[in-house]
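Figure 2 data, in text form.
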Amino acid sequence: MQPETTIFYDVDTQRDFLLPGGALYVAGAERIIPALAEVTRIARDKGVRIVCSVDRHFPSDPELKRNGGKYDDHCMDGTEGQKKIPETEPLNPLYIPNHPLNAQEIQAILNHKGEIVFEKQEFDIFIGNQHARAILRMLLKPFSDIVIYGVYTEICVAHAIEGLLRIGPKLSVVTDATGDLGADAQTVRDKWKENGVEFLTVAQLKEQMPD
């Protein structure tokens, strides 16, 4: 795994998911925060590019219970809960909203050297942001490895992996930097394994990234 051909993919490491009191916090989720901090540090030390997804919800979003959806209000635009946790907060982000982009804006995304952050209004990034699939196809062409981590295994991480498997680069999940919702997580991981996804710990990731 070479830094120049690897992307770290951070899934929804936001306060409403990871911090006690967050709108969709799962008990114990904060246990992975030190691992998330270490993965982020590795990326910065090695010069690995980081791509992120974040929920950014508005009152009219169909995912919310107020509109007949399944979920309580969470990661609402402009709230503290919508922010990324300090340990994964980007240093030089370019946010990609879910609205039409012109060719110049798309090229600026591809040229950006800092973090690329896809904002989404559905848990599935490939539905929740209209540009995700096309931009990731272009962005990932020079890369051979994607390292994935974040929350939660059974929903947002699963959707990201399902979409990324169709794009091409080898996928690896950092197990101790990925949070589970419940008992179904192992079934999800077994399915990933059948599809060629590899698993590693933060310590193993560090070993695989050359000095």
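Caption note: The two ends are 11 Å apart (CA to CA).
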